[in-house]
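Researcher: Please generate the 3D structure of the following complex. Treat every line as part of one assembly.
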Amino acid sequence: MLLRLLTARLGSRDDAEDALQDMWMRLDQLADQPIAQPAAFLYRVASNMATDRRIAGARRGARDALWLDHQPTADDLPDAERALVARDELRRMQATIDAMPERMATALRLYRIENRPQRAIAEQIGISVSGVEKLLQRAYRIIHAHHDPDAAGLPAAHRHDDERGNDR
Amino acid sequence: MSSGTSDIIDQAIAWHMRQDGMDGGDWAAFVDWLESDAEHALAYDRVAMQDRLIPDVAFPQPREAANDDHPRSPRWWHIAGGTAIAAALALWVVPIATHPRDARTTIATRDGERRAIRFADGTQVAMNGGTTLRFDPGDTRNVTLDRGEVTLHVVHDSANPFTLRAGDHVIRDLGTVFNVVSSGDGLSVEVGEGAVSFQPGAEDVHLAAGDALTVRGNGSAATIVRSKVVPTAVGGWRNDTLSFAGSPISEVVASLKRAQGTDVRVAGALSQRPFTGMIHLTGTADRDVPHLADLIGATWRRDGRTWILEERSLTAR
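Model: Done. Output below.
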């Protein structure tokens, strides 16, 4: 089932197997505290790893890892380009969150940055738990809308597809 | 993406928000959902990738205490505008202020995990993996780095200087971007912009942009070495770029562990050999460790989840 999850997320069984192997290698570092629900934990790690890989793939672009034994120069353009794309994404996210109603931004911060349970967020900002859920759902919806996922608008996903060739 | 798929996005968001509380059965249902339609997987992918950007963004911080007389961030007051809005804000800020908590907040990242913090004064702290920070939410101008690595963009205020403590060491900002690594056996400070004072009042070493300082060892046995860095390379870990100038391989490996959680053991005297260079990480240990081995002229092998680097001449290869 883990492999199915990874295959569904990564769009390729080879990538999924590779990710799974990587995951087993990292697991002992992740789990120094006792785990209440081992199965759920594994799924969560796998899901996060899939996202890691999607992002790394998008950021890496077509270029393979490059090791330099000197300081970066103007020749190092692909890097600069990559950083630019990342900065652009970040700027867009910043603008999105700046434009959010305060309460929504606060709920999102408590949920995503401080990892507070929704019940605690509800108490803190004085609305119901289902209100928090709706607020967060709307926040993610806004983020999605602002990061226009329309064809040319998402260089990340495109790069990734190009890079992987046509195994999808 | 056309409007007809908005339901799919909502479903993807709902799945994403549930993930922390899902049990085995829920996960199976999630996989079924992902597999049932290529659009599902695509929508989820976007939601998850966008979600990862959120911690890197500066959130408007709630005022921690009403009696806090530090200057407030100008941006905040722009947003707040009139007093009516300010009063409304105060209403929902209060529960945070009265939240019964330890005066000092601890924020920790695991190896391979990163986190960005923005304080009310606009000062930003980028935390690398394997890092623990402590501070009093009411006084974010005094922060303690228990271990790990941070890059700080400090908003300077000469009346209320920003001070970072790491072990016995104190670093005071003089208008600055700087990076600090603290580990059991040393401390390293690199300045990207502005200047800091290291051990103000005592040694009071002034470090300007491009200056670096490394302390190895503790107490009276400590040695302090000053060196130069490329200012733009300071805090390069945030872009998966690690730079070293004469650092022992053991520190290179420690950086790799912080950044990506990769466990690398260095055999024999190799760990003390100095390394100078820049490393771009791909995020995949399978690529990064063999590349590092190549770069330092070592052989690599894997023992379970640990990578082992060895001097090339010591092996049969």
